[in-house]
Design brief:
- This protein is mainly β.
Length: about 80
């Protein structure tokens, strides 16, 4: 899940989804970046929607992640 989320935030165009699934647990989900912007300190951030299915139950959430100096994305809200 984390690898798919990192990939989606780094390379997926806004409005497009990246999916993932775990064949061992049966869990799955998708991440859809919504908007990219620079905050007041110049850091790139992306709003995103995430859907996760665990045990047959699907949950959706919105959040914001910002790109860290090492290139990873850190969720700051959601």
């Amino acid at each position: 899940m984390n690898q798919s989320q990192q990939k989606a935030l780094e390379t997926t165009p806004s409005g497009s989804s990246t999916g993932w699934s775990n064949p061992d647990s049966g869990n799955s989900g998708q991440v859809t970046p919504q908007r990219t912007y620079q905050n007041t300190s110049g850091t790139y951030c992306r709003e995103f929607q995430q859907t996760i299915t665990v045990g047959g139950n699907t949950e959706s959430a919105f959040g914001t992640a910002c790109r860290q100096p090492d290139g990873t994305w850190k969720i700051i809200s959601g």
